[in-house]
Amino acid sequence: MSARTDVTTSLTGDVVFTATPERRALREAAAAFTRREIAPHLQEWEDAGALPRELHAATAKAGLLAVGFDEAVGGDGGDLLDSVTVTEGIFEGGGSGGLIASLFTHGIALPHIATAGDPDLVDRFVRPTLAGETIGSLGITEPEGGSDVASIRTRAVRDGDHFVVNGAKTFITSGTRADFVTTAVRTGGEFTPGQGHGGVSLLVIEAGTPGFSVDRGLEKMGWHCSDTAQLSFVDCRVPVANLVGAEGTGFVQIAQQFVVERIGLAVQGYAAAARSLALAAAYAQERETFGKPLASRQVVRHKLVEMRRQVEVARTYTHAVAARHVAGEQVIAEACLAKETAVKTAEAVCHEAVQLFGGTGYMRGSEVERHYRDVRLLGIGGGANEVLADLSARLLGYAA
After folding, report:
1. Residue tagged active-site, from 261, 340, 347, 352
2. Could you tell me the CATH number of the domain that includes residue 224?
3. Position 385 in a domain
């Protein structure tokens, strides 16, 4: 085993829920799959701007794609803590934030459908997606809406046994490859600022439906292997049977899933930081300057220790919040805090990793360069830092 692999493995700490033999095995299985099936091809997929559809099927066959989804809907079982373990293992094996976002987009596209429990929708969308046969995405963000879910303007007007949908979505992860989009639409009254919660519904819109089009793929600073799209709906007729849950409950359904999404982004943050630290620590042992290894210099050793401190704090706190969520506690504010902590850790640690690698770290295609670009999105997606800080202030009683 190489020094680099040793360092990477040592950073996956057995804190609370990861201490079970089953989760250790799951993490190693995810890491081994990534080393074998993903890492050798990741730069190719970055250059292509998307993942191959075959990877979804291969990941499902490996028993990793559907972790955290109940077996009753076609999942592999387990809970959020097991999903966290898979993400950690994928980063340990050399995966990336863009890979997680694209390969596991169903983590935000399917929970609403699975929770609502309509047998027809589960059979048509949940089961084949968890089997790696289809790809789903979540359509919430609009050109003028940003993080404000209550401001949804895409309209769905009832016409017999169909809804007629008109509107647009943007920044939609996996939008160019998706076979369906779980879409937030306004089925209630006209949008009124500050009073738009009650009229939002979720509607599954399938690719190929007349009037539904992918306007364009969007190029990004990072997450290059994760395709992102701008979508439009023009007199798009969608069966009423594709409604997820009761009409008008979309805002609540979306809000209920935000905790898991934010914890997931926090995991991406500290996992990318841990991987970058492992790579930098190994490089500091191998790289010689002026006749000595980088790690022989106190300034470098202290920098690595500080990076380690930040990773451990972010990981330990995120683990605790995730465990509390699984236990049934309300952790809306804590999930925001975990995400903020992990985001700042990722930005700081990945920055220092590139610095330690020097010119090599600045080269496109180096792993630390990829993480450096990818983590910048974490403070924007799933609720921008500023939005979540204000939400936390209100929930914690700090707002006037």
Report:
1. 261
2. 2.40.110.10
3. yes
pLDDT of residue 17 exceeding 60, the answer is no
Interval 214-239: pLDDT, tens:
998 999 999 999 999 999 999 999 99
Which residues on neighbouring strands pair with residue 216, listed in sequence order? 230
Nearest to 106 by CA among 182, 27, 207, 215: 182
Count of domains for the chain: 3
- In this prediction, residue 11 has a pLDDT band, given cuts at 50, 70 and 90, of very low
Amino acid, single-letter form, for residue 363: M
What percent of the chain has a predicted confidence (pLDDT) above 90?
88
Q: Is 261 a catalytic residue?
A: yes
pTM given for the model? 0.92
| 202 strand-pairing partners | 184, 244
Does residue 400 belong to any structural domain of this protein?
A: no
3-state secondary structure of 391: helix
CA distance 93 to 224: 18
Task: Give the integer Cα–Cα distance in Å for 177 and 180.
Answer: 9
Tokens (6 digits) for 338: 């975990």
Examine residue 314 and state whether it is found in any structural domain, yes or no.
Answer: yes
Helices (H), 34-185: 42-48, 53-61, 80-92, 97-103, 106-109, 111-116, 119-121, 127-130
CA 319 to chain centre: 16
Percent of the residues in the chain that have a pLDDT greater than 70, as a whole number: 93
Give me the domain span that covers residue 233: 136-248
